[in-house]
């Protein structure tokens, strides 16, 4: 994680636990709480690669509806916790969201870019508070205090079955994991955005008052314009059919 995402180094390097002086070697075990130092014969610097801030978006475009339906049919459960939707047969999906994995790889809304998860986890996933590393056995990593007790869980096989052509893309998971590292592991980390907007509240005014409010305001405006274009495209498509 350090060498592949966070650090730019041109020589071999090691990590040493400051209190004990012990050299830390690669391991699947969680690192002990404490201070660690990096040593190298060359230069070490933290990448300035920007992270891709996101908003949870809700759209009624036909492409989004198809995406949501496809993710529900493939997964049928929260693929993070394993909690099944026992109301699926009744057509109720309350509490379950089809989350987009990536925003920067493709503009095509594909089932391979989605995961079904509990609605509270969707919010955390969109803000990069946890992620899944496809290069570490699809392990879930929580980058903040683990409110949901998901750290160390393994992504459910139902969404990543290689025999299913619609399985979630490793590239999508890798992209999201990279963004999570960039958002959480440099200095104090990036801001966590407000997501609880009571009915009738002034969403845009709230966005402007947040850290990085200008950027988030622009993101929300861009999202609304994109949704409008998608809905207009859907209307034109239906007119052509009839």
TrEMBL record:
<dbReference type="Pfam" id="PF13391">
    <property type="entry name" value="HNH_2"/>
</dbReference>
<dbReference type="InterPro" id="IPR003615">
    <property type="entry name" value="HNH_nuc"/>
</dbReference>
<feature type="domain" description="HNH nuclease">
    <location>
        <begin position="92"/>
        <end position="133"/>
    </location>
</feature>
<protein>
    <recommendedName>
        <fullName>HNH nuclease domain-containing protein</fullName>
    </recommendedName>
</protein>
